[in-house]
Design a protein that fits this description.
The protein is of the alpha/beta class and 166 residues long. Helix content is 23%, strand content 22%.
């Protein structure tokens, strides 16, 4: 079972990610916790609105604005990283946090590396799905790799030079 590193704390992940190709019947989705692809969610929006057991996930080639019309109804948004060299998910996460003001759980799913966790956190991600073969405790510690940051980002909107002048 995958583990969830949520704000540096390890816990079991109860959300089931549904592939783009196979979405369960709506009747099946009344129990359990589901992450469905954003396009499927938008197509079935009327039946799914105000359900706290259904979230969405975006692929790296999906636009962040695809969640803009439903963002207020979502408890969780996942962003898939198909390969660790695909950095589009960083931009998607930051856009979802800053432009669309999402306050729920933003999770990274897929193929990201431990070295990327600190930067994912800076872009607004607060949960990370890691596999069983990964040292999840070491990954959780990577969220605090650096003690301070120079640039402004989601987690620190004021750059270091402005904090020093204050």
């Amino acid at each position: 079972m995958p583990k969830l590193t949520n704000n540096g704390k390890l816990q079991a992940d109860d959300w089931q990610v549904v592939s783009k190709e196979s979405a369960p019947a709506l009747a099946e989705m009344f129990s359990g916790q589901w992450l469905v692809h954003v396009k499927w969610y938008v197509e079935n929006q009327e039946e799914l609105t105000n359900r706290n057991n259904i979230g969405v996930w975006l692929d790296s080639d999906d636009e962040a604005e695809s969640v803009s019309s439903v963002i207020g109804h979502l408890p969780v948004i996942g962003v898939n990283f198909p390969v660790f060299t695909d950095g589009r998910g960083f931009s998607i996460g930051r856009t979802i946090r800053e432009r669309y003001k999402f306050t729920g759980e933003l999770r990274a799913i897929g193929n990201f590396m431990q070295d990327q966790l600190f930067y994912l956190k800076r872009c607004g991600f607060d949960a990370f799905i890691v596999g069983d073969k990964v040292d999840a405790e070491s990954m959780a510690k990577s969220l605090a790799d650096f003690s301070d940051v120079y640039q402004a980002a989601v987690d620190q909107p004021v750059p270091l030079f402005r904090r020093r002048l204050a």
